[in-house]
Write a structure and sequence with these properties.
Strand content of chain A: under 5%
Largest interface: A-B, 100 and 111 residues
Largest sheet of chain B: none
Number of domains of chain B: 2
CATH class of the largest domain in chain B: Mainly Alpha
CATH architecture of the domain at 74-235 in chain A: Orthogonal Bundle
Helix content of chain A: over 70%
Radius of gyration of chain A: 24 Å
Distance between the termini of chain A: 38 Å
Shape of chain A: globular
Helix content of chain B: over 70%
Structural class of chain A: mainly alpha
Strand content of chain B: under 5%
CATH class of the domain at 74-235 in chain A: Mainly Alpha
Oligomer: heterodimer
Number of helices of chain B: 13
Structural class of chain B: mainly alpha
Largest sheet of chain A: none
Shape of chain B: globular
Distance between the termini of chain B: 29 Å
């Protein structure tokens, strides 16, 4: 039994209280609003009659299309981040000169810590129909660039904005796969491809899951990328929620949307986790057998 | 090669290892090594392309900050008008000052709360830990826009309906909004650092009859210090970056820089936006370099630094 230095969890109490008062309470109020309704033109919310009507309203085509759109951008964006980021992380961790690692990490971190809005405006400048890329394309007779304010532009923007969040955990994961492990695999006659699929990749899997979750969660709630690059066609749920609070002044509906957004994020992360676990189980069993075989 | 980064713990050994490995394998089968270098080179090219992609918009902003034209998007001619605007237009410098002030207060507050919580999590785990970590997870997965829409009515309720006038103050509102995510991140970082260090120094201190407060101040806190400083600077950059929550909770008269940019997006982007952004970028980079230096001094490897800087 360890000697008591300071009494128990007392040190965590200030943070506890702070988050209870400024996070849990406000979010609870929003959940409460979501069961109410908008009373007349000038009210924002009323809770004297409680119902699930606002949630039903979320599922009407007008709003639900935006939810589906967001889900597609979320899944597509996360997948693209993985496809683009994984080779970079792999290269950084296992192929790049070891003394360059610090520098390479810094190079990934600089965009990550540059103001999100400003980075996105950078793309606005590049992709603009009046920008130099567009002018260059026109000079080659390829017409002006018309990607801005479309759904692909939003997908492009979120992939750019969240890519560092994929590269960093993948780098950490690949970096942890010790060289001796991979050498052993090769010495035992495994091809390079087999070493990758059966040693490096399975060992890096926790990092892949972390990276996917780190990208997917903020991406689903993204507001800025869609606002800057999306316009009306590239709407996402974040803007929908904001517009209910700011322009439509329908706090009840906006709250229901916010709650749905959180629920969808939590549910899809849980679902992905479950699927990965189910897929991985047979592999894990096989691996355990083979490792025991080597040990004995 | 190995002496470049003396602080990076296990890396030098790793580097030597890698060298021997490639040398050992390069000689016998030439065909094999050729294929290897070919695919590796392809990976390297891909990585370079991705880095170009990552830096393209930042570079564009820096270049366009020297645009003397009227609109940011159309580069007119080279000049420093954008930077001069920072001194001529009080709106710009005010917004930057609001951002810096909020960042300073929010980061100190978040670090204070997060450090205490992180120490408690690492040193006094118990059943409460699950609840607390659950709460922190919830804070970190909640989209910013949800924080924003829930915090605004709450602050209006506290400030106007309950008459607590502190909550009508612009800086207080921004600090509250910016602190939430940062508290969670600082807690993770401090906890991660202390969990990696055994508690025997603290136990020794207690065995030598140091009162708990002295053990805390003289042993636990110094042990956690690199993480505390990293958390402080990370929260500061988080605060400088915060746009969504700020846009909702801000009070006119204390508009932080990103919110000013967001509103300029609607009214027309001018080159001074790029100029001030470039100045802010340099500030952020200095802060980042300081974090990296602190962590490196504390003996973290490049990987540990990456993990800490990405927010645990």
């Amino acid at each position: 039994m360890r000697r008591r230095g300071l009494p128990g969890f007392l040190l965590a109490v200030p943070a506890w209280l702070w988050l209870l008062f400024f996070f849990v309470a406000p979010v609870a109020v929003v959940v409460w609003y979501s069961f109410g309704y908008k009373p007349g033109l000038f009210g924002t919310h009323a809770n004297d009659i409680l119902s699930f009507d606002r949630y039903a309203e979320v599922f009407t085509p007008t709003f639900f299309d935006t939810f589906l759109n967001t889900l597609w951008i979320g899944i597509g964006g996360t997948a693209l981040c993985f496809v683009i980021g994984a080779p970079v992380a792999y290269w950084m961790a296992l192929k790049a000169p070891a003394n360059m690692k610090g520098l390479l990490i810094a190079l990934v971190l600089v965009p990550f810590w540059t103001n999100f809005l400003v980075r996105t405006i950078g793309w606005l400048v590049i992709l603009s129909p009046d920008g130099w890329v567009s002018h260059a394309l026109q000079a080659f007779g390829l017409g002006p660039l018309e990607i801005l304010y479309t759904r692909p532009a939003v997908l492009f923007g979120v992939v750019y904005n969240y890519l560092p969040l994929m590269i960093l955990p993948l780098f950490v994961a690949f970096d942890r796969v010790e060289l001796p492990m991979r050498e052993a695999s090769k010495d035992l006659g495994a091809s390079r491809w087999r070493t990758f699929t059966q040693v490096t990749f399975p060992l890096a899997r926790p990092g892949i899951i972390v990276g996917a979750v780190l990208v997917y969660i903020p991406l689903m709630g993204d507001y800025i990328t869609a606002t800057v690059l999306g316009g009306a066609k590239g709407n996402m749920v974040g803007q929908l929620v904001a517009s209910q609070f700011q322009t439509a002044q329908n706090w009840a509906l906006g709250s229901a949307m916010a709650v749905m957004l959180i629920l969808i994020i939590l549910a899809s992360v849980a679902l992905i986790g479950l699927l990965l676990w189910l897929i991985a189980t047979p592999f894990r069993l096989r691996h355990r057998v083979s490792i025991e075989g080597v040990a004995s | 090669m190995t002496s470049v980064e003396p602080g990076l713990g296990s890396l030098p050994a790793f580097a030597v290892d890698a060298e021997q490995h490639t040398v050992g394998h390069r000689e016998p089968p030439p065909q094999h090594s050729q294929r290897k270098s070919w695919s590796d080179r392809l990976l390297g090219v891909w990585a370079v392309l991705v880095f170009v992609f990552l830096f393209a918009p930042i570079l564009v902003i820096v270049i366009y900050s020297f645009n003397n034209g009227r609109l940011l998007i159309a580069f007119d001619h080279f000049g420093l008008d954008g930077y001069l605007a920072l001194f001529q237009k009080p709106v710009l410098s005010d917004a930057v000052m609001v951002s810096l002030r909020t960042g300073a207060i929010a980061s100190v507050l978040a670090t204070l709360l997060g450090t205490l919580a992180g120490i408690a999590l690492a040193r006094k785990p118990g059943r409460w830990t699950y609840w607390f970590i659950g709460l922190l997870l919830l804070v970190s997965v909640t989209p910013e826009i949800v924080d924003a829409v829930s915090l605004l009515p709450w602050l209006v309720f506290l400030g106007q309906d309950l008459g607590m006038s502190v909550f009508n103050d612009g800086t207080v509102r921004l600090v509250i909004g910016h602190s939430l995510f940062s508290v969670a991140v600082v807690t993770y970082i401090v906890r991660a650092r202390l969990v990696g260090l055994p508690a025997n120094l603290e136990e020794a201190s207690a065995d030598l009859y140091a009162p708990p407060v002295r053990t805390f101040l003289r042993v636990t806190l110094p042990l956690a210090m690199p993480a505390v400083l990293a958390g402080l600077l990370l929260s500061f950059t988080f605060s400088l970056d915060n746009t969504v929550v700020s846009a909702f909770v801000q009070v006119s008269g204390s508009t932080p820089w990103p919110v000013y940019v967001l509103s300029a997006l609607r009214s027309g982007l001018r080159p001074e936006i790029a100029a001030v952004s470039t100045v802010m970028l340099v500030l952020t980079l200095v802060a980042l370099a300081a974090v990296a230096l602190v962590l490196k001094r504390a003996g973290d490897s490049a990987t540990d630094i990456a993990r800490t800087m990405a927010g645990g």
